[in-house]
Please model this.
Amino acid sequence: MNIYKKRKIVNKIMITITVLCTLITLVPLISIFISVISKGILSINIDFFLNIPKPVGEPGGGMSNAIVGSLILIGLSCLWALPLAIFGGVYLAEFGNNKLGAIIRFTADVLSGVPSIIIGIFAYLFFVLPMKSFSAISGAFALGIIMLPIVMRTTEEMVKMVPNTLREASLALGISRFRTTISIVLKTAMPGIITGIMLAIARIAGETAPLLFTAFGNRFWHQGLDKPIAALPLQIFVYAISPFDDWHRQAWAGTLVLISMIFIINLISRKVMKSSYKIY
Amino acid sequence: MNKKWIKLIDPLFMRTTMILAVSIVVLVVILLFSMTKQSMLSIHKFGLHFLFDSVWNPVTEKFGALPFIYGTFVSSVLALLIAVPISLGIAIYLSEIAPLWIRQFLGFMVELLAAIPSIIYGMWGIFVLSPFLREFVQPFLCKYFGFLPIFKGQFYGVGMMTAGIILSIMIIPTISSVSKDIFLSVPLDQREAAMALGATQWETIRLSVLKYAKTGVIGAIILGFGRAVGETMAVTMVIGNKPEIAISLFAPSYTIAALIANEFTEAVNDLYVSALIEMGLILFALTFALNIIAKLLIQSISGKLR
Model:
């Protein structure tokens, strides 16, 4: 009888421990949210969205240049990385069942595991060194590299999910493989691909490390794509490690804006995924 | 006409997508090549001493990687010590025990943890976690466990301990979601067999799930280790950035990624830049090896299960 009781008690204890593990993880999550929201709301004001930073030591000012800079960087990186990633993913799914496909898949996996700071070094060597200036282009190059493997592998998975009968129906009508892929396969897989793209954008929106020595940051309104440009996470970093209270305040405001941006993108992408009709 | 058109456009389309797909391989090759080329200066100058020298002085141009390798390693191991038991608890709870609606809700919460960018962890680390550790946790540890050398010294708030805790929070989603998927892929027959023999719920989990999934879980842990090693911003903000090898967990330290983040824009002469890029190369090699091992382990288990 005794051994049964012992086993039952062990069972209870272990199960309670797993519940506690789950609950304890929520503590930092809730703490982060509470501090970002409470400190952010206290710090945020209309100036934050409309003004550029004031000179060092002078209170006030905002991060409008950084918000716009972040949007420019994200737009630029989408511009070069998305076509590459989407069509690369199409290749992997449609024609990539060979050795070359395996190599590309392997490289994409390697690239998605590379720490983002190393991508920053690469973009520095590739763009900043030859151009002899920090620039928006080099920042967008670094962010795009981070997007590439994410979007490529999602596209591949989504395109693979499109049932073969759809392709066959189209090809049987005498339509070219090219048109079939563009108008039938990609169109069917689009909601999933868009979800992947949005998650990739949410990821790069918060990236700081690869921008440190590429986009570099800028206290003024942006001056062209070949010049240093401000970005929201960079500005938060600079302000957070500064000794000024007013800058800390603005860093919290920036954090609130950044986290809201990222969660809105995440929520929309979930909506897009749910709205897609079942294809499998 | 139509046939001709198809014969023309289809191979062209395939070629185009192939070229675009291959460009990712080309990028990675250029990345490796350019980084190796730029770090040659430092590799030639210091050779293997680079790895074992503990002086980092840009003024005298003496560069040794040891304190940074130590800091990276210890902070990541510390993160694993905290994150592994918690992540496994989460994975077991979410895959085996929790009712469906809790699974979805808590799964979503843990996913949120993964969506928070590094810089925000850093902000929270500087302004919330490190004051909390300095005021409450570190004095407590020093008072009751002060006989251990790892809990001695000044309470700075920033340091190895703070970095380890932040890293552990950041890698919990990785380890728990990968292990959860592995647990879920263990066939039901396994569990039913154990239950039919009269095992309790925990015994079922231990005997038929954990044992079966062991290799994959090790893979998930190594994957988390790789994440922790390469993490930059949050660590830079809370580790104290001091290239010293100290036994105490309260003392400030420095990681490879934090070093690159802090000093790359300040590096003026060629040797300095080259040494920093060599650091990057070491970091690349480390994360590359860890990711490959993790991937092989995880694949070996999911292959076995399918």
Remarks:
- The domain at 66-305 of chain B is CATH 1.10.3720.10 (MetI-like fold).
- The mean pLDDT of chain B is 92.
- Chain B has one domain: 66-305.
